[in-house]
TrEMBL record:
Region (Disordered): 40-64
Taxonomic superkingdom: Eukaryota
Record organism: Lates japonicus
Coiled coil: none
UniProt domain Fibronectin type-III: residue ranges: 50-146, 148-237
Protein name: Cardiomyopathy-associated protein 5-like protein
Record keywords: Coiled coil
Bias type Polar residues, positions: 54-64
Domain B30.2/SPRY span(s) in chain numbering: 219-412
One Gene Ontology cellular component: cytoplasm
InterPro entries for the chain: B30.2/SPRY, B30.2/SPRY_sf, Butyrophylin_SPRY, ConA-like_dom_sf, E3_ligase_FN3/SPRY, FN3_dom, FN3_sf, Ig-like_fold
């Protein structure tokens, strides 16, 4: 009966939004009352006009995600409409492209389970009991980019900054970098830097803090979801020597923490250039910093700090802009002296250290050296440092030095 047909149709239309695979061409209206063609039924249906074609609205900027687009359309106010059929096909489409149909009752829908950073052709038709409208204009809709990945192995960290790097994606998009402290202070929110065109960004940070970083990719259609968090610490766990500052006679390990002066290189180095040096990362001129150097691989070395403006033609400690502890070989072992501006001050050491600790304290104005095993003070410069300093190392004989920053100052330094 017509009532049964009407009830079955209404039940179908009231069901949740359906996503179904359609045929390759334009889908025609499915006659829900197929097979029932009596003259009375036809006469009833002739009283309802077929809807006019809907007007599909262009995609709104920033409305898409990586896997979905939202589609809106307008209809003729006088039309009687029971549902809409929305079609979607990847553009440009080839022989293997498939067309999808979504049935909805509202004048909008969200097309889901799409591919990131792709363009789709979308069109819509209005349906009532009588039939199906002509299709709307086919418009292009684009999804947002895929989620980028922060490449933590290529990120570099300094005391007051970090350079974040991530995997390159399609060139026509930009990126938004978001970050916060791992343990946020009250009132702090997520900070962001938007409109980044390259695949790296330097960010100024606070020393001795842990931060969480996220990256989003953005195109005109919208933004991807946040990437997985990358934990970046400025607590000194990734201290590096600066390869660009190394003397040509020195070799630097891949992780940029170990310095080596080969025997054959030493033999071929001129006497006037027998104290090749290297600088570490610049230490911001606030607070204090402590690092240790394993010295068992060398019998003659210099450890200290230098300003960026120090003349590198002079050996470490032999100008007014660098300070160092010098280890000098002797027949019985070695002796130590403090060296600054070519002025030498001998220090007395009972036991030769395996690790030398260096403390740079900007606030108190001192540079101190310790036997890190014994916690014994070797010597101290009292100096008001007016510029940020680089840690500096030099080798006077073949051998090696390995340096590491220590996040927490040892108790023996706190007591000294």
């Amino acid at each position: 009966s017509p009532e049964d047909i009407h009830a079955r149709l209404k039940a179908a239309l009231d069901s949740a939004m359906s996503l179904e695979l359609g045929p390759k061409g334009l889908l025609v209206f499915e006659d829900y009352a197929k097979g029932n063609a009596s003259s009375s039924h036809l006469a009833q249906r002739k009283g309802i006009p077929v809807p006019q074609r809907p007007t599909l609205q262009p995609q709104e900027p920033g409305s898409a995600t990586s896997t979905s687009v939202t589609v809106y359309w307008k209809v003729n106010p006088g039309d009687i409409i029971d549902c809409f059929q929305v079609y979607c096909m990847e553009d440009p489409h080839g022989a293997v492209s498939e067309e999808y149909r979504v049935t909805v009752k509202e004048s909008y829908c969200v097309l889901e389970e799409l591919e990131p950073d792709k363009t789709y052709k979308v069109w819509v038709m209005a349906v009532n009991y009588t039939g199906c409208s002509l299709p709307s204009e086919r418009l292009a809709f684009t999804t947002a980019p895929s989620v980028p990945v922060i490449d933590t192995e290529r990120c570099t960290v300094m005391w007051d900054s970090a350079t974040l790097r991530w995997q390159e994606q399609i060139s026509r998009q930009s990126y938004t970098l978001e970050y916060c402290r791992q343990y946020e202070l009250e009132g702090e929110g997520l900070r962001s830097i938007s409109g980044i065109k390259s695949c790296e960004q330097r960010v100024l940070l606070q020393p001795s803090e842990n931060y969480l970083f996220y990256i989003k990719a953005v195109n005109e259609a919208g933004a991807s979801e946040q990437s997985e968090a990358a934990l970046i610490s400025t607590k000194g766990t990734r201290f590096h020597l600066l390869k660009a500052s190394a003397h040509s006679a020195l070799e630097l390990s891949v992780d940029q923490t170990t310095l080596h002066y080969p025997q054959d290189t030493y033999e071929n180095t001129p006497l006037t250039d027998k104290c090749p040096s290297i600088l570490g990362e610049l230490l911001p001129a606030r607070g204090h910093y402590y690092w240790e150097t394993i010295v068992t691989g060398s019998t003659a070395y210099r450890l200290g700090v230098a300003y960026s403006t120090a003349n590198r033609d002079n050996s470490l400690g032999e100008n007014s802009l660098s300070w160092c502890l010098q280890c000098i070989p002797t027949p019985s072992g070695c002796r130590y002296q403090l060296l600054h501006n070519d002025v030498q001050t001998s220090v007395f050491v009972i036991e030769m250290p395996e690790r030398v600790g260096t403390l740079l304290d900007y606030q108190l104005g001192r540079l101190s050296f310790y036997n890190a095993q014994r916690g014994q003070l070797i010597g101290t410069f009292s100096q008001r440092f007016t510029q940020p300093c680089h840690p500096a190392l030099a080798l006077e004989m073949p051998g090696s030095l390995e340096v590491s920053m220590v996040p927490e100052v040892p108790e023996f330094i706190k007591d000294s």
